[in-house]
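Need tokens for this chain, all 179 residues.
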Amino acid sequence: ETYQPFSFLLLSSVYFFDQHERTGQNSTLIASLFVLGLAGSIHLLAFFAFPSAALYFLISGRLRRPSDIHLRRMIAPGLAFVAGFSVYLIQLLRMLRTFPIATVMGPVAGSFFVRDALVTTTLLLLAKSALYYLLLLVTQFGPVGLIVGVYGWRVGSQAYPSLWRKAVALYAVYTVFGI
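Here are the structure tokens for all 179 residues:
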């Protein structure tokens, strides 16, 4: 099962990123991006963490101008991400020695997603999928589970606002793109 280690690594990345925001240490940002790269090696859905981060910065009102970003401080975290993702890249290079690139990269690279999912998606279809997802949540967790979940979201928003905004951003992006 790929989703357990993927989820663990994705949440570990969020944990290290939260530690970076609290302490400002570059080592925790390096750890966050390395672990995110490992998550990307397991499942390419990890790349949705980047739009989630953008949404988080938008929600928290912390969007920065490009001139405020210190590029020199981003070199080591960027290399850490590539190092974590290198597990996937090595496997990809090994496969390309045997198979043509069209066979290997087809739907994996997202051409299926872009061509079929984004082009044909309408607002009505998105709303229908969201309602279907809500029905799935109700049948999977039941009313008691949903009440406990809503309570947890409410308490979390007050007790841990920064983590709550990160969770909202991740949930929103992964739900929209998962539909």
